[in-house]
Write a structure and sequence with these properties.
Blueprint: H1 13-18, H2 43-58, H3 70-75, H4 110-123, H5 128-153, H6 170-182, H7 187-191, H8 196-217, H9 222-238, H10 245-257, H11 262-270, H12 274-281, H13 286-309, H14 330-349, H15 374-393, H16 397-413, H17 435-453, H18 458-486, H19 488-498, H20 503-515, H21 519-532, H22 537-549, H23 553-566, H24 571-583, H25 587-600, H26 605-617, H27 621-634, H28 639-651
Helix pairs in contact: 2-5, 2-6, 4-5, 5-6, 5-8, 6-17, 8-9, 8-10, 9-13, 10-13, 10-16, 11-12, 14-15, 15-16, 16-17, 18-19, 19-20, 20-21, 21-22, 22-23, 22-24, 23-24, 24-25, 24-26, 25-26, 26-27, 27-28
C-alpha cells in the first residue's frame, strides 16, 4: 500500500498533521534528550556497553549451585535429565508433571524446558556452571535489546530492521539500557536457573515488538508481521507473560503510526461531533486495522491453544499461596490486590529489600480501612493518576513517550494482577523483569524533564552525580544479591531479614540445615514454620521424617496424619506414614497408607519398594516379590528393589 501525500488544497493543516501512513515524527525530536548528562553513542556501542555491564553485575552467579525452585524444576525433572521422551515435555508443565492433571501448576513453558534439556546434554549432566552461564549471557543480550526497544518506544526508527533509519534518542535509550542491566529486581531472573523463563520470554518479546515496529515503518511488511507473530508465540511458550507484547504493539500502532494520543482522543470526545472527528482522523487506517486484526487473531488463537493444552481447567491454589485471593469479601480482596500492586511498585523504586518468596504470611492481609498500609495504596494510585493526567493534558512528544512506557509497565504486569485469573503467589520478583522496562522508561522521562528545568551547569552537575550514585548503588546491590542467590544458606537467611513471618522461609532454612547435617537446628526451624502455618503439609512431612530418624515415631505419626488430613492427595506423606506405622508394627494401617499413596501416585517405585518390605514383615513373600518387581519395572535402576528380589529368590531356592 503506497503512502498518500496530503493535499493541502482539500484538507486543513490540522487534518494533514493528524495522519500519515508513516510513523509519527515530531519536529523537535532531535533535541528531546539532549539535556541528559549521558554520552551520545552509536546504537551498536550502546548495546555492547549495556551487555557488558549486565554480564558484570551477575558474573558471580556463574559459580552458584541449584537453589530454591531449581531443585524441583531442574534436578528432579525427568524432562530435563532426559529420563523421559523428548515429546513429553510438550505435554508437561514447567515442573515435569502432566499439565492436564488437576494437581498441575499449569505453567506451560516447553521451550524453556527444552533449553534446560539441551544445557543438561551439553554439560554432561546436572552441572550448574553452564546453566548459570547461559542465564548471564541471555541477560546481557536482553539488556542490549532493551536499548533498541527503548528507542522504539520513544518513537524513533531502529537500525538493522529493514530500514535505513538511525536512533536519535541516543542518550535516553542508553540510559534505559544501563538501568535495565543493573536493576537489582532482576537478580532472581538471572541468578536462579529457573529465571531463564523470564529471560527467554523477554528476549522474544523484544524481538516480536521490534519486528512489529519494522512492519509499521515498511508499510506492513508481511515478513516482519509474520516474525512478530512467530516471536510472540515463542515468547509465550517460554513464559505466559509473552502474549502481552500484542497489547504493546497495538498501542504503539495507535499512538505513533495512527498519531492518536490520549490528549487528542479526549479532545475529539469533548467536541460536538466526536464520531465525525474520529472518522476523519482514521480515514486512511486500512493498514493499521489490518495489523490490528492480525494481533487480535493471534491473541485469540494463542489463548485458545493455551486453555486447551491445560485440559480446559485452571490451576488449583491454596490460601497459603495467595491469601488475598481467598479472603472473605470483595472489598478485602480488592484492597489487598491493590496493596500488592503498590508493593511491586515499591520494589521497582527501591529494590533494597528483596526476598526469594513472599507467600505464607510474609504480607499480612489488610482487614480494616484504618490499617496504615491503606495510605500506601492511596499514594500508589495518586502517582498513577498523576502520570495519566500528564499524558492527557498536552499532546507533546514527552507525553507520548510517557504513555508508551506506562503501557509497557501496566500491560506486561496484567498476567500477575489477579484481574483475569487467580495467581499462585503474592509477589514474584521474576514477574517484574519485563514491567521494569516500563518503570525505567518513566524514570528516564522524568529525569529528562528535570534536566530541562535545571540550569545548564550546576543543575546538570547535580543530575550527573545523582545518576552515578543511582547506577553504582544498583550495581552493588545486584552483585550482592547475585551472590546471595549463589549460596543457598545466605539466600534463605536474607529472606528471614525481610519476611520473618514467612513460614516458607523457615521451611527452606530447615531444608538447608539438613543438607549441612544440622538436624537439631532443622527441627527447630520446621517447628517454627508449622507454628506460623499449622497447615503447612510439607513442613509436617519433613519434620516427621527427622523425628522418625530420631526414634520419635509417635510424634512423627501424628504429624504425618495431620499432613494427609490437610492434603489428602499428598502421596509422599502417605508413604512416609506407612513407613512409620510399619516401624510401630501397625501393619494393617501401614498397608492402607501405602495403598493410599499409590492411589494418588500410581507410578511410585519407592512406595512399591516399601510395600514389599511391609509384606516381608507380614510374611507374605509372593506379594513382596510382586511389589519389588513393580518398583523395578517403574524404575529399572532401583538397586535396593533388585537386591531384595534376588535375596528373596535365593532364599526360596529359585
Amino acid at each position: 500500500m503506497k503512502t498518500q501525500s496530503p493535499k493541502k488544497n482539500r484538507r486543513s493543516p490540522t487534518t494533514d498533521r493528524l495522519f500519515t501512513e508513516t510513523r509519527y515524527k515530531p519536529a523537535a525530536l532531535q533535541s528531546w534528550d539532549s539535556l541528559l548528562p549521558i554520552p551520545e553513542l552509536p546504537p551498536a556501542a550502546s548495546c555492547a556497553i549495556v551487555a557488558v555491564i549486565a554480564a558484570l553485575c551477575y558474573a558471580n552467579s556463574v559459580h552458584g549451585g541449584f537453589v530454591f525452585d531449581d531443585s524441583e524444576a531442574i534436578e528432579n525433572n525427568a524432562d530435563i535429565t532426559q529420563e523421559s521422551a523428548l515429546y513429553s515435555l510438550f505435554l508437561h508443565d514447567f515442573w515435569g508433571d502432566d499439565i492436564s492433571r488437576q494437581e498441575s501448576h499449569k505453567s506451560y513453558r516447553p521451550l524453556t524446558v527444552l533449553t534446560f534439556r539441551w544445557t543438561h546434554y551439553l554439560a554432561g549432566g546436572l552441572h550448574p556452571l553452564l546453566f548459570h552461564l547461559t542465564n548471564v549471557v541471555l541477560h546481557g543480550v536482553v539488556s542490549a535489546l532493551s536499548v533498541l526497544v527503548s528507542a522504539a518506544l520513544m518513537g524513533e526508527g531502529l537500525p538493522g530492521l529493514n530500514q535505513n533509519t538511525t536512533l536519535k534518542c541516543l542518550r535516553a535509550s542508553l540510559f534505559c539500557g544501563v538501568l535495565f542491566a543493573v536493576h537489582p529486581v532482576h537478580s532472581e531472573s538471572v541468578a536462579a536457573v529457573v529465571g531463564r523463563a523470564d529471560l527467554l520470554c523477554a528476549l522474544f518479546f523484544f524481538l516480536s515488538f521490534l519486528a512489529y515496529v519494522s512492519a509499521c515503518a515498511t508499510d506492513s511488511s508481511c515478513l516482519s508481521l509474520l516474525l512478530c507473530v512467530l516471536f510472540c508465540a515463542i515468547s509465550m511458550l517460554c513464559k505466559e507473560q509473552g502474549i502481552t507484547v500484542l497489547g504493546v504493539c497495538w498501542l504503539y500502532d495507535i499512538l505513533y503510526v495512527g498519531d492518536l494520543s490520549l490528549h487528542r482522543l479526549l479532545t475529539y470526545l469533548r467536541s460536538s461531533s466526536p464520531l465525525y472527528q474520529l472518522r476523519h482522523h482514521t480515514g486512511h487506517w486500512h493498514a493499521i486495522l489490518t495489523r490490528h486484526a492480525l494481533l487480535l487473531g493471534t491473541g485469540l488463537a494463542l489463548c485458545i491453544f493455551r486453555y486447551t493444552i491445560m485440559g480446559a481447567s485452571t490451576p488449583q491454589f491454596t490460601p497459603a499461596d495467595n491469601p488475598a485471593a481467598f479472603a472473605d469479601g470483595l472489598l478485602t480482596r480488592v484492597a489487598n490486590y491493590n496493596y500488592y500492586y503498590a508493593l511491586n511498585g515499591w520494589l521497582l523504586l527501591n529494590p533494597m529489600s528483596l526476598c526469594f518468596d513472599w507467600s505464607m504470611g510474609c504480607v499480612p492481609l489488610i482487614r480494616s480501612s484504618l490499617d496504615p498500609r491503606v495510605l500506601m495504596i492511596l499514594s500508589f494510585w495518586l502517582i498513577l493518576i498523576f502520570l495519566v493526567y500528564h499524558c492527557a493534558i498536552r499532546d507533546s512528544h514527552q507525553s507520548r513517550i510517557l504513555s508508551m512506557f506506562l503501557a509497557v509497565l501496566v500491560i506486561t504486569f496484567l498476567p500477575a494482577s489477579n484481574i483475569f485469573f487467580r495467581v499462585g503467589f503474592v509477589i514474584a520478583e521474576r514477574n517484574l523483569y519485563l514491567p521494569s522496562l516500563g518503570f525505567i522508561g518513566i524514570v528516564v522521562t522524568g529525569i529528562n524533564a528535570l534536566a530541562g528545568l535545571c540550569g545548564p551547569t550546576k543543575g546538570r552537575m547535580m543530575i550527573q552525580v545523582f545518576l552515578v550514585v543511582l547506577i553504582t548503588t544498583h550495581m552493588g546491590k545486584s552483585v550482592h544479591r547475585s551472590h546471595q542467590w549463589s549460596v543457598e544458606e545466605e539466600l534463605y537467611q536474607s529472606g528471614l531479614d525481610v519476611c520473618p513471618l514467612n513460614a516458607k522461609v523457615h521451611y527452606n532454612i530447615a531444608k538447608a540445615a539438613v543438607d549441612r547435617g544440622k538436624e537439631k537446628y532443622a527441627i527447630a526451624s520446621y517447628r517454627e514454620a508449622i507454628r506460623l502455618n499449622p497447615e503447612y503439609d510439607h513442613a509436617l512431612n519433613n519434620l516427621a521424617n527427622l523425628l522418625k530418624e530420631d526414634s520419635q515415631e509417635i510424634e512423627a505419626e501424628n504429624l504425618l496424619k495431620r499432613a494427609v488430613h490437610v492434603n489428602p492427595s499428598f502421596a509422599a506423606a502417605w508413604m512416609n506414614l506407612g513407613i512409620v506405622q510399619a516401624s510401630l508394627k501397625k501393619y494393617d494401617a501401614a498397608q492402607q497408607s501405602y495403598e493410599q499413596a499409590l492411589v494418588h501416585r500410581r507410578s511410585y517405585p519407592d512406595c512399591y519398594f516399601n510395600l514389599g518390605n511391609l509384606y516381608i514383615l507380614m510374611e507374605e513373600r509372593s506379594k513382596a516379590l510382586n511389589a519389588w518387581l513393580n518398583a523395578t519395572s517403574l524404575h529399572p535402576h532401583h538397586s535396593k528393589a533388585w537386591q531384595n528380589c534376588l535375596s528373596l529368590l535365593d532364599n526360596l531356592g529359585e
